[in-house]
Amino acid sequence: MGGGAYEIKPPKEILKYEFDTVVLGTFTGLDELKDQLLEMGILEEKIDSTYIESSVRARIAFLEDFAGVALEKNLPGNVAELGVYRGDFARHINANFPNKKLYLFDTFEGFSEKDIALEGNFSSSQNKHFSNTNIELVLEKMPYRENCIIKKGWFPQSAKDVMDNFCFVNLDADLYMPILEGLNFFYPKMVKGGVILIHEYFSKGYKGVKKAYEDFSADKNIISLPIGDNLSLAIIKT
């Protein structure tokens, strides 16, 4: 092979090779991939997910620290996530804001073809990405399940009846249009001192995320900064 191409092989092909370490380099389905390797008989000490887990920990640390600030300042408003997938980060939002409603926006069926069509570098088959989830799987992870409000469907239609204000929102929808619509919907509803976290902003795989923010913020005086996880940008409402 040449020209920088890489051969894609079925997962079980790995068993044909001798190796010291298997490096996991994806955020999506990290826990599921580790379990799959273990089920294939690969020893846990040979599975290295250090880089990915350090990024995840940085994101969770930011959330925990901000939740403490929000509590100290008694920030009003509820919390939300757009792009829930299997609920792994939503679980931390729910745990750190135990007295606030958590709105969970997702199709729970993967990417929408409407949104993929606008990306340019995505195929229609990629609407199956993030489809291995369901509402009950997500809710089972929530420590304060009674605070969760599921908003299933295509965003922003799924939010048409939501009138709340917010102090924290995580935008993790990966594509240009839902990120843009998320900013259009949530930014006016953020309380002073509230934060919108845009995941995948620094990603080279989901370039629509950064473009959505740039288009949204072009005519606005917005304060934003990276949070140290190499992926996320935080917007602070002033």
From TrEMBL:
Its EC number is 2.1.1.-. It is an enzyme of class 2 (transferase). GO terms for biological process: methylation. SUPFAM superfamilies: S-adenosyl-L-methionine-dependent methyltransferases. Keywords: Methyltransferase, Transferase. The keyword Signal does not apply. InterPro entries: SAM-dependent_MTases_sf, TylF_MeTrfase. Gene3D superfamilies: Vaccinia Virus protein VP39. Pfam families: TylF. It comes from the Bacteria. This is TylF/MycF/NovP-related O-methyltransferase. It comes from Helicobacter cappadocius. PANTHER family: MACROCIN O-METHYLTRANSFERASE (PTHR40036:SF1). One of its GO terms (molecular function) is methyltransferase activity. The keyword GTP-binding does not apply.
